[in-house]
């Protein structure tokens, strides 16, 4: 009879009261600093839904040195597709890999406000670099992309270099 109890626990929606309070305290700010808060992928669902989609004046979001992986990048990417205020997103020193880079790239293809994206010290490899390169070919607003200390090799670097020759940021 333990099984029904486990099912009930799994049906409980994810909450993080500490993060919810942080979001509430920062809901109208232009800069939000959530660095080194030990935030995870599920927390990014809250950040995307409760901050990025609600705060219409947010221009800078610092999420570096957390535990954000590909799923967290997916939540952020979905929110970035409709966000019209964020210009700087700091995601360095997290756990974002190739899939996460793809989710962020999908957002870059339609986002018209983000100018700086910091992704250094993550787990992005050649495939992730290729996804980002594809996004750079169509994005006209991003002027700064920091990818140092990832797992990008010669192939990924070539894709990025080729994309930069085609990119015409206006």
TrEMBL record:
N-terminal signal peptide: none
Protein name in UniProt: Uncharacterized protein
InterPro entries from the UniProt entry: Leu-rich_rpt (IPR001611), LRR-containing_regulator (IPR052201), LRR_dom_sf (IPR032675)
Keyword hit for Transport: no
SUPFAM superfamilies in alphabetical order: RNI-like
Keyword terms, alphabetized: Repeat
Pfam name, any one: LRR_6
Species the sequence originates in: Rotaria socialis
